[in-house]
Each structure stands twice: as C-alpha cells, then as structure tokens.
Design a protein that fits this description.
Blueprint (H helix, E strand, L loop, with lengths): L8 E10 L11 E10 L6 H5 L4 E8 L10 H4 L6 E4 H13 L8 E6 L4 E6 L9 E8 L8 E11 L8 E10 L3 E10 L16 E13 L10 E2 L1 E13 L10 H7 L3 H11 L1 E10 L3 E2 L2
Antiparallel strand pairs: 1-4, 1-8, 2-3, 2-7, 3-6, 5-6, 9-10, 10-11, 11-13, 12-15, 13-14
Length: 294
C-alpha cells in the first residue's frame, strides 16, 4: 500500500518512436495510459465491474513521436511526452463528483492541458491515500489501424512532499485540599503534523488529538459529622479524548474540513462529522477501605 496524499506532483518520462521496419506514425495516434488505484479489472466481465471492481485514477497522454536518426535529448525525451501533473488535479475530479452529487460508480473526467490533449479520469472511488496498484499501458487511438512502434518509460515518481510540521502541549494542575484530599487536572493536545524527533515524515500525526482528565482523591468521611469518626476514601475520574483525523475515512485523500465544505445538506454534513470524529470517554468511581475510627 502506497500513501500519496502528502505529495504534490506525479512525473514520468516517455519516449515514442516508430519501429525501424514499420510505417510512419503520426503524432497523437498513440497514448500512454497511467492508472493508479485500489483495484481494477481489465476483463470484460460486466458482473465484476458492476460490483465495484474498478477504483482508480487514470491519466491519458497522446504521444509525440521522436524523429529517427536525431540523438538530441529534446528529440529522445520531448517535453510534450513528459508527464508532470499535480496530484491535486486528480482530487478535483472527486471534489466535482461530491459537489454535484454524482453517483460513485459514474466515471468523471476532464482535460488538463488542451495543448497536450492529456485527460484525467476517475473510475469508482479511488484514493491517493491507499494506492495498491500502478499500471502503465499504451493505447492505439486509431481503432481502425494497426501501428508498429516502440515506447520507453522512465522514472515514474512523485515529488513535492508536504513537510508541514505541527505542535503539542501538555498541562497539569494539582489542588491540595488540606486533609480532605486532592484534585488533579490535566490536558494535552497534539496537532496534525506533530511527531517526535525520531519519527519519519510519514509517521507524523495525521489526526488532531485533545484529551483532558479530572481526578479526585478525597476522604468523604471528612464531610460527615466528626462524631461518626468514619473514613471513606473515594476516587473519581473523568477522562475525555477527542480525535479528529486530517483525512476523511471514506475519501482518504480529501481532508475532513474540505469535504464538509463541498456538501450543502446539513444532515449529511453532521453524519460525516460523526463518522470522522472519534470520542472516547472513561469514567471511574470507587470507594475502598471504608472504616470507623475508634
């Protein structure tokens, strides 16, 4: 599993030429197809496709053919064949689908650069936060004509890692109440992007966490008439933890706040908040060793 949500660009070099003994191939008659996603089925099994076997982003780039006999880098690796797309453009497809309430099984696509003619498509519900499969293929854009050529691909990579940091804080207060007992208050907070010095960048927090704790340890017998001479140690604690992830649990490459801004239905927004945010409550109360003092 590969997580690409913190990267900014996807890049790859592509070279295309006709075979030595083959006919000429016009520019933009062949295209390189790059798919990345959770799963995809290349068969024509419609039953499998209907069950959601396809969940991927797809990038299609029509290729410029290199001229034979010219050894210059600009001819071998032309800029028009250089894949250098912002990963955020893939997310634009998902934003468009959510904002316009398009069904998750419908394909969404758009043109990135009209001059290059490159297209991005989204099939199903893929996520840059959970990429399991990469596929590179060549597509003949002339369905009625066979071609004979040679394609090289080199250095498929992602660049521009988001190195934004975070912060954390902790506080504690203890209140001593003479011989009655003590109260303890504590709280801690860590933001998205926070991590210890020995943590790698990908191991930093991807959630915002806030926790507070109130604990009381008192002798309840002190609150009773002194003549009863009763000792009743009581311990009570309340601890609450709120965890808000950076990314939505369903659309793992969209931030929770961003997804909420795309949805107008208040009921649906509240549902997304409830699913995304985790709240943990711990309550403790016990009385031990109650005794009468002679």
């Amino acid at each position: 599993n590969v997580n690409l949500v913190l990267y900014k660009r996807l890049q790859m070099f592509v070279h295309a030429e006709r075979a030595l003994d083959g006919p000429e191939i016009d520019d933009r008659k062949l295209a390189v197809v790059l798919r990345l996603g959770k799963d995809f089925d290349n068969s024509n099994n419609t039953n499998v496709k209907a069950k959601g076997a396809n969940n991927y982003y797809e990038y299609i780039l029509p290729l410029t053919m290199s001229k034979p006999g010219i050894q210059s880098p600009d001819n071998i690796w032309p800029d028009k064949n250089y894949i250098n797309i912002p990963l955020d453009s893939l997310l634009e497809l998902k934003r468009f689908r959510i904002k316009n309430n398009i069904h998750v099984r419908d394909t969404v696509q758009m043109v990135i650069n009209p001059e290059k003619g490159d297209i991005i498509r989204m099939v199903g519900n893929p996520s840059l936060g959970l990429v399991k499969v990469f596929q590179v293929a060549i597509k003949n854009l002339e369905t009625d004509k066979l071609v004979n050529g040679e394609i090289w691909i080199n250095e498929l990579r992602v660049t521009g890692f988001d190195e934004s940091g975070g912060g954390a804080a902790i506080g504690k207060v203890q209140l001593q109440m003479a011989d009655l007992g003590e109260l303890n208050f504590s709280a801690n907070y860590s933001s998205i992007g926070f991590g210890a010095l020995d943590k790698r960048l990908m191991e930093r927090n991807r959630e915002e966490t806030f926790q507070f704790d109130i604990a009381a340890n008192i002798d309840a017998g002190k609150l009773l008439p002194q003549a009863l001479k009763i000792s009743a140690p009581v311990y009570a604690q309340l601890q609450k933890t709120y965890i808000t992830p950076q990314f939505d649990p369903f659309d793992q490459d969209l931030e929770v706040g961003e997804k909420l801004s795309l949805i107008e239905n208040s009921t649906k927004r509240d549902s997304i908040k409830e699913i995304a945010r985790e709240e943990v409550t711990i309550r403790t109360f016990n009385v031990t060793n109650v005794r009468t003092q002679a």
